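Re: iron/sulfur cluster structure - here you go.
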Amino acid sequence: MARVDSEEYLEGLAQRLREAFPQALDGEGRVNLKELLPEQLQEFCAILGESSYRAGQLLRWIYVQRVTDFQAMSNISARLRARLERLAVLSQLQLLTPKHSRQDTSKFLFGLPDGQMVECVKMRYLEHLGPERVAVCISSQVGCAMGCQFCASGQAGLVRNLKAWEIVDQALQIQRQLDAKGERVANVVFMGIGEPFNNFDNVLRAIQLLNCGEGFGVGMRHIALSTCGIVPGIERLTELAYPLKLAISLHATTDELRNRLMPVNRRWNLEALLGACRRYQERVGRRITFEYVMLEGVNDSPEDAERLVRLLHGIRSLVNLIPWNAVDHPTFKRSSPERVRKFQERVQRLGLRCTLRREKGSDIDAACGQLRLRQAAQVEPVEA
Ligand code: SF4
């Protein structure tokens, strides 16, 4: 029979763990293992007198077997499982409303421990991944402070940053749903609600957790980060030289229009933004995607197309045109398909790669923030 630890001994361990991992504690002072990086999990095991091999086992149980309960960790001793029950926790987001698109896209709304909500989108539109491989678009903040005029999240303002585990758990929960079908999350895209560079420390930790080979195992090259143009964030990414995909929400070709659509441009204008993009590409070498939402009569003229090509000259780029998802917004109208087609043709003729984002998800309010805004007052938990 396993020896039982005394309460005094366990309290001593708990104290040491609280001192070692203050940022990873839940409301009851237990360590949330999903907030720990692999090397911290080793430190956690060392405090419990366990080898680093044990940390690898825990990583695999959490991110590969995807268990939610220490008792399911069958190759871990009963004594250690009892300690884990007392000293640690595996926090989880609560799935509130899975909302299925008619097409191949689903949107998920998750409840956070403090009652806030966050959303993410599962997509199967990346044909080159194969039918069993899925991309998830995840959120990095509850709400967003950046105030982009065309964005529902921007209108609601920032509520708070997500912790690293709250970011990773969006992908993990979707993966758990895919397991039964033998499908796999192959790409993770930081393009949901929030500006990732405004929560960069937690986003960085989430990227490391997603990328960990013994854990979730999404390759760096399959993680994309989208920013509205926070230049110091791009510079930090340049220093790190991670081979991530960088995407820029551009949406305008003059400072005058971009100042109006995206207040961030008043702080870092087009010249500063594109300068940072050039330096990032020199260092990291990866093509940069420029997102461009098509707004009729605002940014979709032939002159806009020509200016766009001139602006991006010298940057290896992909321009991704996004048909605007008509939120209830009095100011903007969606560009007609004909106008979008002509814009795309002109950009391509002038030598830039230009794609049109397929409208998977438009039937499930997949524009940023809408689901959260509409359902904030009326969600019910559902079985995961
Ligand atoms: S578009 Fe992105 S950066 Fe702009 S307000 Fe919306 S979530 Fe924030």
